[in-house]
Amino acid sequence: MARIGVTGLGTMGAALALNMADRGFDVAVHNRTEAVVDEFMEGTGSLSDRFTPVKSLEALVDALTPPRAVLIMVKAGDPVDAVIDALVPLLDKGDLIIDAGNADFNDTRRRTARVTDEGIGFLGMGVSGGEEGARHGPSIMVGGTEDLYRPVQDIIEAIAARYQDDPCAAWLGPDGAGHFVKTVHNGIEYADMQFIAEVFGILNASGRSYADQADLFAEWNGGPLQSYLIEITAEILRARDSETGAPVLDVIVDKAGQKGTGRWTVIEALKLGQSATAIEAAVAARSWSAEADARAKAEETYPTGTTRMSHVLDGDLEKALLAARMIGYGQGFALLSAASRHFDWSLDLARIAEIWRAGCIIRSSLLDDISSAARDGLPHDQLILAPGIAPRLADAVEGLRRVVLASMEEGVPVPGLAAALSYFDTYRRARGTTNMIQAQRDFFGRHGFERRDRDGTGFHGPWAESD
Ligand code: NDP
């Protein structure tokens, strides 16, 4: 009998199942298209004895030791509901379903309620690290009741990445908490990728060769920017297309895909009265990238000419990336705090930063500092106000400012970097300019305002007197 079942042997499900077997667990494996199970088994090599291949969900359930644990790793959305609908009648009370795909946490909350009603447990589990991570150690963010997590904790911790022996897996809170944290993780990832892509654009506009840029990113990876995304950027800049021998970046269409997690982050931020503008800029840039024909027409209408940037220092670019990264993480953590309060999740922000230090796409040396800052408590829930972060951001942000200014002068697009800078400049003003907005609201809609010189609400401007 197998300890756990996996249904969905696509990229991620297959890698997770192999990872579990590698760690000594017996796994029953199933896939909707039966032939995929055979293909999977052909690639299991010396691990094949650990697997029980099955061709139906009934057989999957029969192959498991009760109380059963079934991990679903199928395409996000309706397929998850379809698999749950098929599984629930086959399971007994006390069994457990784990959805390890990228679910919208609202769906996870709904599914948790639906499955719990049937006496079956449900964990919504975010897995980050792509195929490689899933195979050799991802970062794992679990939501559901803690009681449900305990029986599978050993498996989840065993397959997770390790940061100095600390497993990058944790139970984070009830129902949708795990998928919410994974969503925000992806939002931060969107922003970080966008910042890097913009710096790539600036370096291109400065006439720097890919080889030169690769060296620069590799050098940055040895400093405060050390991270997986900076590391792979250097590798990508060096890579050549195997068919044509051209730099691989030159053969790739500038159209970025998205599966929804960035958009969900922005939507949830707005719902919670937050605004993750750097992440929003990254989502927008991917959306605009899909409009190739309109962009070609726009370039014809408003020609850019040949852009030559010459006055951006490498040191400023490094600082710009660091400042923007801090702000991107800051917006993500502010969102996590807001969600934790709203849903009463008691999210441990320090632990979240810790489990992102290995295995996941946004792993970076900055997360060590972020976890320490969160452990000490974030002033006003703001990472950018943490004593361990603020002096570094204050220093780096001036580089960000010079880079954004120089780019804007030349018309080189920097929507993510500019959004990060604008957020910083807006946030650090104790007195902003929304008094004007409040006056306008009162002028046309008698919405009232608060006065600086006395308590109370509902004051009106002189325009109200003429009514
Ligand atoms: P793949 O496209 O490689 O595999 C999809 C799997 O879903 C296949 O096993 C497919 O079965 C199954 N499936 C699709 N529709 C149905 C259905 N209606 N009923 C039953 N099974 C169905 O996807 P991935 O492995 O890349 O992604 C799986 C999940 O993991 C997604 O939620 C994704 O967002 C998430 N994820 C992916 C990451 C990545 O880097 N790829 C990283 C982190 C999370 P069949 O063979 O029959 O078509």
TrEMBL record:
- 6-phosphogluconate dehydrogenase C-terminal domain location, by residue? 178-464
Keywords assigned by UniProt? Gluconate utilization, NADP, Oxidoreductase, Pentose shunt
InterPro entries noted in UniProt = 6-PGluconate_DH-like_C_sf (IPR008927), 6PGD_dom2 (IPR013328), 6PGDH_C (IPR006114), 6PGDH_Gnd/GntZ (IPR006113), 6PGDH_NADP-bd (IPR006115), 6PGdom_BS (IPR006184), NAD(P)-bd_dom_sf (IPR036291), Pgluconate_DH (IPR006183)
Binding-site residues for NADP(+), renumbered to this chain: G8, L9, G10, T11, M12, G13, N31, R32, T33, V74, K75, A76, N102
Q: Name one GO molecular function term.
A: NADP binding
Substrates-to-products reaction catalysed: 6-phospho-D-gluconate + NADP(+) = D-ribulose 5-phosphate + CO2 + NADPH
Q: Which Pfam families did the record assign?
A: 6PGD (PF00393), NAD_binding_2 (PF03446)
Top-rank EC class of the record's enzyme: oxidoreductase
Q: What's the stated role of this polypeptide? A: Catalyzes the oxidative decarboxylation of 6-phosphogluconate to ribulose 5-phosphate and CO(2), with concomitant reduction of NADP to NADPH.
Subunit text? Homodimer.
* Protein family per UniProt: Belongs to the 6-phosphogluconate dehydrogenase family.
Protein name as annotated: 6-phosphogluconate dehydrogenase, decarboxylating
- Gene from which the chain derives: gndA
